[in-house]
Amino acid sequence: MDSDLPAQPPVKIDTTVPVSARIWNYWLGGKDYYPVDKEAGDRFAQFYPGIFDGARASRYFIARVVRYLAGDAGIRQYLDIGTGLPTQDNTHEIAQWVAPDSRIAYVDNDRCKSGCAHVR
């Protein structure tokens, strides 16, 4: 470990507060969420019952676009902003399936309870 780097305090996950990325993971059928996220996602679904289908349709749309860009358009570099939690059919999986030399950078912002920002 590089001694020149400042020590970072461990990030604590507050499982009592719903987080949008985990709610989306729940709507997409993922496994990385807590009961509070499921509860919030289900409450939202009471007002918008189509959210589960909408979330999946959004994911399928991204997959179609990346397949087109990697294949027909020949794009090899991608910046995925607002990534959320990793789930199935991530940008790198689709792009590299079509064009193995594709490069993908993922960027998201997550705020811990104290307000510190972390970039993944």
Description:
- The chain is of the alpha+beta class.
- The chain has one domain: Vaccinia Virus protein VP39 (Rossmann fold), CATH 3.40.50.150.
- It is 41% helix and 13% strand.
- It has four helices and four strands, in the order αααβαβββ.
- The protein has helices spanning 20-27, 35-47, 51-70, 91-98, and strands at 77-81, 103-107, 109-111, 117-119.
- A two-stranded parallel ribbon has the order 1-2. Strands 3-4 form a two-stranded antiparallel ribbon.
- Helix 4 links the parallel strand 1 (77-81) and strand 2.
- The radius of gyration is 17 Å and the shape is flat.
- The two termini are 19 Å apart.
- Mean pLDDT is 87; it is low at 113-120.
Put the structure in a nutshell:
The chain has 120 residues and is an alpha+beta fold.
Topology:
Layout: H1 20-27, H2 35-47, H3 51-70, E1 77-81, H4 91-98, E2 103-107, E3 109-111, E4 117-119
Parallel strand pairs: 1-2
Antiparallel strand pairs: 3-4
Helix pairs in contact: 1-2, 3-4
Proportion of residues in β-strands:
5-15%
**Averaged pLDDT, please?**
87
Q: Unreliable runs, pLDDT <50, ≥5 residues?
A: 113-120
| Structural domain tally | 1
By CATH reckoning, the class would read: Alpha Beta
Full CATH superfamily name: Vaccinia Virus protein VP39
Largest sheet: 2 strands, parallel
The ordered string of helix (H) and strand (E) elements is HHHEHEEE
Query: How do the strands line up in the largest sheet?
Result: 1-2
The secondary structure category is: alpha+beta
Supply the CATH architecture.
Answer: 3-Layer(aba) Sandwich
**Percentage of residues in helical conformation:** 40-55%
**How many beta-strand elements?**
4
What is the CATH T-level topology? Rossmann fold
Helix count from the secondary structure assignment = 4
Radius of gyration: 17 Å
Question: What best-fitting shape do the alpha-carbon axes yield?
Answer: flat
Distance between the termini: 19 Å
